Amino acid sequence: MNDAPKQELLDILLAKSIRTGHFVLASGKESDLYCDCRVTALDARGANLIGQVGWELVKKDILAQFPNVSSIGGMTMGADPISLAIGMYSSLDQTCGTTLNVFTVRKEAKDHGRGKRIEGNFESGQEIIVVDDVITTGGSTLKAIDAIEAEGGKVVAALVLVDREEGGREAIEARDIPVFPLFTRQSIFGSR
């Protein structure tokens, strides 16, 4: 793959989404790195690049290991624009033969209508890529995995926009689900 789209995506992440300093995270942990990837994922150019770079990663690394993957999604709201962008790119690729269905996982089941926790193009029995924008402890990704598995989905891989490299990858991989990050703390900042 041409590295220019990935570099452009990184440039947008650095300009819009990634900050250094002292932060208290949703997990309660303190960190010197803050990532608000929604700003990039909801940017028109950022979303386009996420779709392009993410779909290339799916084709090259995930489908090579898990050729029966049919759906992509994760916990709302962080995963939603990422899953949709990658799913849209999959539908444009005439060379692969795979178009990913897109779904979202609610934090809680609806208390009205059909009472669903998973919305969109999801069916029990599907092999699935779970998505998250950022992993720190892996907690939100694991909650999404639990919800998907409770509804009969088989999560075979996790795709994340940024792995902060603070233990989340190991927590997810302890469930025998490999993690495929587009970026890691190391790839963003080097060894500093």
From TrEMBL:
Residues 124-170 form the Phosphoribosyltransferase domain. Keywords: Glycosyltransferase, Magnesium, Pyrimidine biosynthesis, Transferase. One of its GO terms (molecular function) is magnesium ion binding. Pathway: Pyrimidine metabolism; UMP biosynthesis via de novo pathway; UMP from orotate: step 1/2. It holds the Pfam family Pribosyltran. Its EC number is 2.4.2.10. It comes from the Bacteria. GO terms for biological process: 'de novo' UMP biosynthetic process; pyrimidine nucleobase biosynthetic process. Its cofactor is Mg(2+). 5-phospho-alpha-D-ribose 1-diphosphate binds at R106, K107, K110, H112, D132, D133, V134, I135, T136, T137, G138, G139, S140. It is an enzyme of class 2 (transferase). Belongs to the purine/pyrimidine phosphoribosyltransferase family. PyrE subfamily. Catalyzes the transfer of a ribosyl phosphate group from 5-phosphoribose 1-diphosphate to orotate, leading to the formation of orotidine monophosphate (OMP). This is Orotate phosphoribosyltransferase. It comes from Akkermansia glycaniphila. The lineage of its organism: Bacteria, Pseudomonadati, Verrucomicrobiota, Verrucomicrobiia, Verrucomicrobiales.
